[in-house]
Fold each of these.
Amino acid sequence: MCLRRRPPGQLLVNTSTLPSDQTLNAACTAKRQQILDGAATLFLHNGYEGTSMSQVAREAGVSKGTLYNYFDCKAQLFSALIEAVAETKLRNVYERIHSDDLDCATTLQRVAEAMIRTLLQPDSMMLYRIIVAEARKFPLLADIFWQRAFGVSISTLADWIANRAARGELVVDDPVFAAEQFFMLCQTRIVQRHRFELPVDKSDAAIKTVARITSESFMKLNGAH
Amino acid sequence: MCLRRRPPGQLLVNTSTLPSDQTLNAACTAKRQQILDGAATLFLHNGYEGTSMSQVAREAGVSKGTLYNYFDCKAQLFSALIEAVAETKLRNVYERIHSDDLDCATTLQRVAEAMIRTLLQPDSMMLYRIIVAEARKFPLLADIFWQRAFGVSISTLADWIANRAARGELVVDDPVFAAEQFFMLCQTRIVQRHRFELPVDKSDAAIKTVARITSESFMKLNGAH
Amino acid sequence: MCLRRRPPGQLLVNTSTLPSDQTLNAACTAKRQQILDGAATLFLHNGYEGTSMSQVAREAGVSKGTLYNYFDCKAQLFSALIEAVAETKLRNVYERIHSDDLDCATTLQRVAEAMIRTLLQPDSMMLYRIIVAEARKFPLLADIFWQRAFGVSISTLADWIANRAARGELVVDDPVFAAEQFFMLCQTRIVQRHRFELPVDKSDAAIKTVARITSESFMKLNGAH
Amino acid sequence: MCLRRRPPGQLLVNTSTLPSDQTLNAACTAKRQQILDGAATLFLHNGYEGTSMSQVAREAGVSKGTLYNYFDCKAQLFSALIEAVAETKLRNVYERIHSDDLDCATTLQRVAEAMIRTLLQPDSMMLYRIIVAEARKFPLLADIFWQRAFGVSISTLADWIANRAARGELVVDDPVFAAEQFFMLCQTRIVQRHRFELPVDKSDAAIKTVARITSESFMKLNGAH
DNA sequence: GATGAATGAGCTTTCATTCAT
DNA sequence: TATGAATGAAAGCTCATTCAT
């Protein structure tokens, strides 16, 4: 048995025991991916407790036995899934950051807009919900999520900020902290309220406005003047 | 065909049917409170799905039947609990705001510090996790939480900001948005990372530093000069 | 607000979704039959509400999980059982009708006797009790019971009556109504009283007497003279 | 404790222990009637298992404690109720029989019609369902029902038949059996089918037709010619 | 006598996991 | 390796009955 259903304390999933990518042959990987695809649909819709292994098996088109050939238990499947999903979600945000032939304010506004839109996507929103909800049970998960999603965004932006500071366009002591502030400011109003399922204007115009204010605020805080 | 346990759509709990603050007699209230206390311990530790009604009964020292005499179903108990908890959690934050004979920067720094400390408390942290996780299933919950916790903090701060702007100490177009930005900035680094269970310096000094930076940032954005 | 266990209205079990007589493989059918056998014992003894799924599982020698692998819910198991039982119960009655080289009165007396004996069997009696008791909750059940049991008997007898009328041995306007009257007359005294658990002579002789009177009555009502 | 919830064998309620009518003071009787009225509504709508003591208490406007002051257990309350209800239900049927200044056929047709209408009433129908369903568990109940309802009707009609036979209008060997046959014939088609919740024409015309056929049939079987 | 809060066994149903084929 | 039938613990919830007030 892998795990008790309702663990009294922490539910530790040692991700180091996951079959790592390099040692898997192709056929195995294909089936594994098939399972992960099915799992993604369900976990991101219904959460961890709301998804049953039978559902995953059906959705993925494999038997329950096969499921357990590839993943030792539900928690491990979940971990593997979040690992896979987190990686791809915020990619377009920091790709945006690299297109940096524009002035600071404009770039930041575009990044802010991309960030807001990404965070509002149903998948991302659900991912955030799940990670925050299950972070205590799956501490490694949050770590993975941070490293592959938020963390990457922050360090990418921090690098960009340091670069612009070097050029004299910004004046920044701690680029990482500044980047973190920037991402927090992005979440003002729309993202934050949407997380609480509160009614809020999520129109294009509203998003652009928050993005603009965020960019302007950042420039006020860290601009060269 | 057969009754589904997990409804596909929303699980609406009409909180207006909760025994409200009418004149419940003392005995009734005492037992009710006893149940809520037990429920708090468990729900705030293990989340909604992770807590069973049997556990709550045992923890509260009552029988399952008694549980259901006071609350129609698990969802309603949960709702009532969150309602009760949310109310008390952020109270000290906005009480801090009213002690306003100090200069802006100092007041804001104290508010930021109180906010950070509150959000870092295990209960608050768990409350945030649960609300975000279950907001889809319990839309009214998030609403309550917002109205009694975050919402109150924001509008209290917004009022203070408007007041200081009237005095000429701040220059602010949209006091509510400014307040929302302030609270987002409070969550930079420590709170945010703690939510993801990432290692982060949560020392007094670290908290004071983030509070100071937050206050300074706000003043840069909205100060009279 | 919360999910009610007992719906106020009808409990519809769409029997068309029951695994029908398709080509179920042998193993599946064997286990299914094993469950139905256990269910028959209990439901026919204790009725629908008086039988629990745990009891059925124990009686059938399977786990509760297995029960639910074969039947979606208690109502469906019950429906499937009644469907299976109803079919076999009255078969020997209408088989009796086909042996028709005898004169009318003798044939009818034999049919009446078979009918009375069948209706007095503990299983049939209990089946009648259950169907009548649960007809409101399971309208399709009564329908099935009628179509496979009483209905078949009536239409078989009605055909026989029409045939004899064509031969000039009977004079009948409405063969179906005549058949219905015949079956009601069969239930006079012994069957009726037994249904109410009243003391009544159920001896062979008594049965033969009622059968004879029934046959004679029918001939008086519909005989050629 | 009065009775186990799910009795393994028979559920005997010794009705001789019911507080008999003469020894009860007025106040007590009033409350008792109040309870029985509430119980009638529920038991006749939802059956024995489908009715809870809490519901009865609420419907009757008394506390559960009071319920148990007047009736030792659910089974006894149910017994007392059926006893009370059965008595009143078929009264109008045999009252019809006494108005006997008409010719046989007409009287019988009126009695048949009254009988059919009575049996089709929702209360009577439900009473029949309940008695038949619970007869095994409550053997005394069915006895009571027979003695106060069906039995009275039969013996009243049998007396009338004997009287008319003495007048030479009928030729009957066994008036009781003839009466039983008459009541069975009344149940042909409409009543029988309605018991199985099958669709059937329950119009005034249809009822009159069955009543007429029943009367004619009886006259054919037992008329003076 | 009347109340209704409290009890706890029992109900239907779900689901992670195993294992014979 | 893949299957899916089988398991059984545990879930949410009900209800006849008791008893302190």
Note: Confidence is low (pLDDT under 50) at residues 1-25 of chain D.
Amino acid sequence: MKMSRLIGQTRKEAPAGTSARSHELLLRGAYIHQVAAGIFSYLPLGQRLMQKISAILRREIEAIGGQEVNMPVAQPADLWQQSGRWYKIGAEMSRFIDRKGHDMALAMTHEETTGDLVHQFIQSYRDLPRLIYHLQTKWRDDPRPRAGLIRVREFVMKDSYSLDSSWEGLEQQYRNHYSAYFRIFDRCGLPVMAVLSDTGMMGGSIAHEFMYPGEVGEDTILFCPDKDCGYSANRQVAKFQKPVPVKEPLSPLEEVATPNCKSIAEVSQFLRVEPNHCAKMVFFVASLTYPEGQTRKQQQTQEQNGQKLVAAVLPGNMELNETKLTTLLNSLFGVRELRPAEEAEIAAAGAVAGYASPVGLQTEDCIVVADELIIAGSNWIGGANKEGFHVRGLNYGRDFEAQQVGDICAAAAEHPCPNCGKKMESTKAVEVGNIFQLGTFYSEAMDCYFTDESGQEKPIIMGSYGIGVGRLAACIAEQHNDEDGLIWPISVAPYQVHLLSLAGAKEPEAEKVAQQIYRDLQAAGIEVLFDDREERPGFKFKDADLIGIPIRLMIGKRSLENGGVEYRLRGRKQGKETPKTFWPVADVVNRTGMEIARLEEEIQSAVRNVEYRA
RNA sequence: CGGGGUGUAGCCUAGUGGCUAAGGCGUCUGCUUUGGGAGCAGAAGAUCGGGGGUUCGAGUCCCUCCACCCCGACCA
């Protein structure tokens, strides 16, 4: 590709409103162009980057038996009604009505269309196992797109779907993906950690996320520093060894005046007790799942009605984990949404914010959920549901009860590892991939059954596995850059070679050599970006640094005088100690080919075979 | 959805009630220059996000709508 003809202009200055390094560099390097919040066009360089990454994804998924298909972005509502997600998912799914008046949805993911395919084409145990995958656009109307390609609304995802007749088969395909994902990220030069994760809207039982650790991430993950232990989990589901409270003889419930003590910190200081003796209350309002078969109008009406106040009780030295709370609540009823309650809503249930207690809260519309520590412990300090007063000697069972008991505490750094008890560490991270054991939820809902050896009808056992291509590109950019610009690993670089003609107007010879080398490299099948523009050398160097293609070849009067073509690796500083490298013109194609092979070998040798670890 | 911020030429910015909206980058023309974003001369490019209002006068103040960014809620 000749740069004189390339669409997209590089920029010296960072566009306003970029906070992530990858966002800034991808914009400045003319890789992407923002069309609206979370919606991007990919310019030629960006598109080639995406295709390189896609090629890696295809290669590794095919290697574990994947067959590429293509499922649609526009989907009939029936499919989503069958799975029930039409009723469970809120505004994140965009819906529209086609000209015939049919409800339609834009694909957020493709479990439903997979079910549709499977229903049609898989009937017998002989048709299993199978693995299908595609690279297709997803639309998720995210309320808060941010940081360039890190969090967008429209994006291409590699998603695969495994189909099995047995749970052992699912386990095998799940493990295959687990290892394949590590190979994919290794090939992209991206360090990741696999962590246990929440199943969220996907449903299913077991799930892992592949996390790229870094400040640009929004997730927090916890992990055990002990390599042999290896426990790691998203904060949303992370467990930890909780201190077991000593059960004391129950003391009587008594009110104490605690003027102006609304927070746990204030109360514990005022009463001179440790926060872990206080019972903390956190209030939420849960919106319930729409009953199946409801029209959208009925759903809108239900918005106001189908809500319940949730009062969570946990020790004062712990933070509440909303995901754990939601999961617990889901065992009682379907939760579509959980949001913090407002003071008026809390008051309506008879509680006083700041002095709240679970005592006397069991009304029709209020659900009390208690952490297991509250049950195990005794004689808690809690609110009196009366402005300016708390109580001592608050005890579960005697003074109050909960509809649901479980673990609702958030794990944090320093908490003991649930496996080995060592202090865990935490880091922020970006989710670049996930794998889910879906089980039979979708196959049962969407009538995907097969006949087994004994002639019995059984639901197909499914798994689903995703990697966001654009987000992956952004993470690679986050990982591989310096003050001058991007530094792509050769495996994903839009071109393997950046050829710069540094010939001035009075140096037609050098220009001719550059043109010839460009043609020779192309003829040899080497991907080359040729800077043939009429610009000064310095200008071209800056652009080449910004764009970040790994191998740079430079031809000018000076290089010819020094023996031919100057070779340089992007990202390797050309200090006084490292002498410049020149290749004879006749050798350039050969040497370049060898250099590409060497760089590819470097990547290849970094590809690990990571064994599955639950 | 809540809080904060920003909208001025393709990009980055200045302009804080008063003359024809200013500069840099980029673009175009010519000359000159050619190993780390050169120099000179000239040119084009803006209904100052939209609408409404206050005022003799609004890019500037007020209202309103929209868009984008950041934080939170949210999503994964």
Note: Residues 17-72+108-228+426-478 of chain A form a domain with the BirA Bifunctional Protein; domain 2 fold (CATH 3.30.930.10).
Amino acid sequence: MADTSGKPDNGSLPAPDGEPDPLAILPGYTLRRAANAMMAELGTLLSEVDLRVSEASILLLIDGRDTMTSSQIGTALDIRSANMAPLIGRLVTRGLVERVPLDGKSMAIILTVEGEATLHEVRRITQTFEQDLLQRIPTEHRDHFVPALNALWR
Amino acid sequence: MADTSGKPDNGSLPAPDGEPDPLAILPGYTLRRAANAMMAELGTLLSEVDLRVSEASILLLIDGRDTMTSSQIGTALDIRSANMAPLIGRLVTRGLVERVPLDGKSMAIILTVEGEATLHEVRRITQTFEQDLLQRIPTEHRDHFVPALNALWR
DNA sequence: TATTGTTATACTCTATAACTATA
DNA sequence: TATAGTTATAGAGTATAACAATA
């Protein structure tokens, strides 16, 4: 008998006493908490240029590409086409991107001059953010971070 | 001069050609993508017991604790009290937890017998999920995963 | 005065369905 | 027929403000 404590078996989670958050040993839970914390932080940083994380991602993605369609962007970023429409629409309204017809059906989403200027600010913000994020990870774990995460979705 | 390609400097991101997703080298971006993918998967698994991830987290958290209040749960899981009310309300309606007055102001959220039975199913689902998640991470990165993530929010 | 808990509300993200137009 | 794009809509998650009741 391994358990002589008299407490009920709660599935190998730490005992209630002395551990404020027994879920913190679960990989999926820690993944969710870390992502939520980091994206909230990035969202705050990006509010400086009045962009959401998804919008900034689009700007970063289409830079240097002049034939990328809305559906291609959606595929790359895992955003449904129905959700791409209002997303691109807002960027167009703000003058950051424009729709350029490729043929009668497809339209390339390209940066405007103003969009490129905003993207420059986005790069400044995200590069600082990404560096700070990595700095917070202890050195012995740092190089394992991106490879481990990429194994979960790529 | 490091760049003789004639392409514009796009902030050290990979060149457009040959890389379908140049954002995949960014720690924050990979963190978001991995978390979204894993939580979507967990959500699908938990639909078997008609629970959302946040609801399952509450059941896992309060097990073995009989004096945990709504605000304490919210603090532990980073859920605002205004959002705890409808969350707990749904669990009460479904008969999985009940509110037990601690004093005139505070109420403990405790599992009902039915809630414990459901929690047993939740444990089966989440343990399988967590194991599968870890299995997908290459062995050399696996032990670094939770420590790295916990450094970002704990 | 601070804390617990609630209601109302709104914004974002995400998802499906239905539709138009073009390849 | 399949693809590109749009609109409408709904379900979650999350945020603030305002409020009542109690410590």
Note: Chain A touches chain B through 62 residues (CB under 8 Å).
Amino acid sequence: MYICSMYSKELVKGTLNVIVLNLLSQNGRMYGYEIFSRVKELTNEKILLKDGSLYPALQKLTKLGLLTVEEEIVGGRKRKYYNLTEEGTVRNQEYLIEIKDFFQTMSIVLSPKTIKA
Amino acid sequence: MYICSMYSKELVKGTLNVIVLNLLSQNGRMYGYEIFSRVKELTNEKILLKDGSLYPALQKLTKLGLLTVEEEIVGGRKRKYYNLTEEGTVRNQEYLIEIKDFFQTMSIVLSPKTIKA
DNA sequence: TTTAACGCATCGTTAATCTATGTATCAATA
DNA sequence: TATTGATACATAGATTAACGATGCGTTAAA
């Protein structure tokens, strides 16, 4: 899996957690590769999560108590299904509020017509 | 100057360059502390650039040929005025396009109602 | 049988940003 | 007059999220 996002790394940085948490909150039970595929599909291949980023992130979020894992064998292949915990749900809401506020603030800073004080 | 942004570091990461370039493209000639103040004012203190981030960033952008510097003494204090170069103007446009596209893409990923394929 | 897609893991590196600290001027204030 | 806060810039070292590279194993298709 060698892939590359159309956005500079720096931009995408800081959004991985909220992407993962939010997808899980909407779709429920998902496994890593499924998350990768779903993001790829939703973004028209504009955001391609790196597996070297995604899998460690899922492990980290689990360690933090935001996700639960269940391992299964499906079609001879190992899968790890993740689910949001209650804490994960709360954190997702917080993240969403923060990121939306941030995007709005950024659009003000970057708006072509800002009024000088 | 000890300050703290209301957003998590990770989110703001990757947006410093475009903030600086875009402010300069709108306001023309500005100095570091002025950029800090302007962003603070525009964002209602939600984004407070750290001086340990801003000044190195200005130096880096200058080294990259995106900015020019002129040093002046104003009111007994040293100021370094920055301006966009042509290359900086082009880069700013590219950054703007990228970040707006990215924000739109993110809003799709994070939208509460995504249609499953 | 080889390639591609599936599915997960991990080690070492990168690089943007932060923290902390330092310098110096000026205005206000206690 | 001494101190604080705002103005103005600088830098060395630490942090840390994410990345690149690599590895393992399965299944299906060419």
Note: Residues 9-110 of chain A form a domain with the Arc Repressor Mutant, subunit A fold (CATH 1.10.10.10).
